[in-house]
Design goal:
Strand order of the largest sheet: 1-2
Protein name: Reverse transcriptase Ty1/copia-type domain-containing protein
Strand content: 5-15%
Low-confidence stretches: none
Number of domains: 2
Mean pLDDT: 80
Organism: Punica granatum (Pomegranate)
Radius of gyration: 17 Å
Keywords: Membrane, Transmembrane, Transmembrane helix
Number of helices: 5
Largest sheet: 2 strands, parallel
Helix content: 40-55%
Structural class: mainly alpha
Number of strands: 2
Length: 125
């Protein structure tokens, strides 16, 4: 995981920058898989828990915070319009990545483990 190199002015700006960076990675991975002969039958979906960032991604209206992320806005919107990637909202409680990035209570930890298809690592075999 990389350290943050840019100070964001808002959480929306930070989320949007992360969306753009994730799209770059997804597009690269899709290109690699296509080169290897893997065929895709579904549109790649990028989940985000920030409603404001998703709103900016699909709407052309000007937002004051957008002036700092204008290049990212054009990049994200271009790939959404071209149906390269789709975006969807995901509840903060449903983010499976939390198991790798946050200290979780035992209950939440086991819920995420089960959603990932991992059995309880502490259960006797």
């Amino acid at each position: 995981m990389k350290n943050q190199t840019i100070v964001s002015r808002s959480s929306v700006e930070a989320e949007y920058r992360v969306m753009a960076a994730a799209m770059i990675e997804v597009i690269w991975l899709c290109g690699l898989l296509a080169y290897l002969g893997v065929k895709f039958t579904h549109l790649t979906r990028l989940f985000c828990d920030n409603q404001a960032a998703l709103h900016i991604a699909v709407n052309l209206v000007f937002h004051e915070c957008r002036k700092y992320i204008e290049i990212d806005c054009h990049f994200v919107r271009k790939h959404i319009k071209s149906h390269t990637i789709d975006t969807s909202h995901i509840s903060t409680n449903m983010q499976l990545v939390d198991i790798f990035t946050k200290a979780l209570g035992q209950g939440r930890f086991h819920i995420i483990l089960s959603k990932l298809g991992i059995r309880d690592p502490h259960a006797p075999t």
